[in-house]
Amino acid sequence: MLLGEVVGTLVATRKEATMDGFKFLVVKSLDVDGKVAAGSVVAVDAVGAGVGEVVLYATGSAARQTEATRDRPCDAVIMAIVDTWEVDGKEVYKKG
Fold first, then answer.
1. Taking the model in full, what pTM does it have?
2. For the segment 16-69, what is each residue's pLDDT rounded down to a tens digit?
3. Does domain 2-94 bear CATH number 2.170.190.11?
4. Contact between 95 and 39 (Cβ < 8 Å)
5. So where are the chain's domains?
6. 77, 24 Cβ separation under 8 angstroms
7. Nearest to 29 by CA among 18, 37, 20
8. C-beta separation of 45 from 27 below 8 A
9. Cα angle vertex 43, ends 90, 63, to 5°?
10. Cα–Cα dist 18/21, whole Å
């Protein structure tokens, strides 16, 4: 699992038929301190996330392990919306 922030949406009117009905979000990776890390992905939203939210996402074969994405051509999936996280006893993030 990786931490990221949803920074945008992606609309694709033509896509693989098994991906119809999915919402695609652009996610920038975050490091453990909450700072933007290198890289971004387009991920299938399996939990109803929105722009500005911090999320947990999976990539690669793990992205095809959710109920929504099983056996679909998916390389990244948002599987949780983060409420809070702490590192070394310090709160790094709290959903506002």
1. 0.91
2. 999 999 999 999 999 999 999 988 999 999 999 999 999 999 998 888 988 888
3. no
4. no
5. 2-94
6. no
7. 37
8. no
9. 85
10. 9
